[in-house]
Design goal:
656 residues, alpha/beta, eight-stranded parallel beta sheet, globular
Amino acid sequence: MDQWRRALTRARRGELAVLRQPWHRPVPGGTVAPYLVKVLCTDEGRLAAWGTRYGLPARGICRHGSIPHYDLWGPLADRAWAELSPATLGTGPDAGPGENAEGAGPGGPPPGGSPLPGKGSSPSQGGMVLDHQNPEPPAGIDSQAPGPVPPGGGPGPRAVVAVLRGPWPAGDAAARLVRAGWPGAGALYDRWQHVLEIAPLPPELARRLAHEAAGQTGFATWRPYAGAASLLVGGSLPQLWSLAHRWAGRDQPATGQDLTRAAGHALARALLSLPHLPPGRLGAEGGAAPLSPAGVSAGSPAGGTAPAGRGSAGPVSAAPVAGGPWPAGGFPAGPVPLALGPRKVDFRGRSLLFGRRTLIMGVLNVTPDSFSDGGRYNAPDRALRRALEMVAEGADLIDVGAESANIAASKPELEEELARLVPVVERLVREVDVPISIDTYKAPVAEAALEAGAHIINDISGLHADPDLAAVCARYGAGVVIMHLQGHPRRLVREPRYDDVVLDITRYLAEGVQRALAAGVRPEAIVVDPGIGVGKRTRHNLEILENLGAFRSLGYPVLLGASRTSVIGNILETPIGDRLEGTLATTALAVVHGADMVRVHDVRANARVARMADALVRGWDEPAGGWPFDAVTGRQRRPLRELGRLPVRPGDQSRT
């Protein structure tokens, strides 16, 4: 955050300064420029003199925003950044370019050799955006490489995923039977049939694995998908676990065997992440290694034992997630946080408890034009009052956004977005005692917010829009919400296309997870969000809601953000301000499907619905002081507690 303040301070003093921000726009030559570099100075004469050295005309100075500046891309931007960033960021002499001993004066050549190109230069040399034009990126541009992304924004063909296709149990029915006096009912879970889909696979491999799976489980088939194929397999949990173990254990180096192992890893991860899975249900037959009692591999540091069931009293793991349950020392295809059951996760000094109940993320927009409540909370005092109100109503964390995802909303310049966001974050961190999440896809904004004390970054693009964002989150130890988006946050796809909504979104989220892990983000600090209402038509949104439990198959907690979205307005035919009942229905559905968090505007009502649905689905515990009402007479026996401050079990404190 200091570097951005320093840059703006220098520019306002009449000195040259430089800022760099994600851009991802098409440029001449058929490539995509990942960054836009701004050279800023309130002294236009000095700015124009600097531009003359590089062949930049004075008419190219952009005057939108508060400070005149050049917008540069390509090698021209790289050289400007190399020249100006040391003084701007405080890593070199605190003097303007052209005034230090190592550089040339305003009339001389630029540092590093020949003059840089301006208008009329070849695409390979870079250039600038003239006449303050800032074109929107076309749909389908990927942040990492030029060219369109696959339908649904999915990763490459070798990123194999598995998703649950059914059934969707409303809680652990077997556990309810055990509580009702049928101790042997737990074995019923082993006999229920589960159906999972694995994709993408080469058609020949899918055909062969289908034949092999059918011989073991009794049902398997395959179908064409996204230029390849997907495999559908059904069976009992022990049968499926044994199949996953067999496929993942193959060690031949051939490509087909590599993908067979990938299919086994994906299937195992999906099984370990099933909604409301009772511990110890996997590996009971078929020769595969059973799930360890702690839900982690031997030798992992998590320790403890798994709870007897969701909603029942049991220990909570506060240790980092280990490799996951797998024979011979750990699950080889990455962590599976959901396999650990209830766990307390630290986010830069504040924590959330996952797995006991559905968490509530309260929405706080500090924008003038958000689709739902734009302009209501865009001052620090009003934002703070609203945040405190949401916490009292039951919010477990607050999600702050300073740029609207509304396709019709304005898109602020970086300095404007920071001016909206940073003062609010500083107040919230000081005066609100829950984690603060920041809704942004930009590394500079995320860094400024984390410097101000924020705890989680909620990226609408799923770490696809800005390649530096994952590294920023890792460096600060922040949590990350990875959301699906088709297109780019500054220009959503108007005609979204999917080969298969559930599979395409799952593959996109899997790629975002891999980017986060590769950058060093802690696996237990990752949450995935299928992205209701963003880059999707109504039929797509409904299919996501119908299959919400499938997204748990990646092994990470699932966030649902359906509050007040257009799918509710279309089904109920209601305006934005009259969509509470529809939102409450999606919250109850999220609990049934095992979602860990819902992002909502109306916190009190949604927190109550989630609390009631959790009691029915996950189980319940009578409070230490007893229930507040006598069930026979209906008389109140003790004072009622605010939902946002209900007492929790010892060791379950979710706020620090």
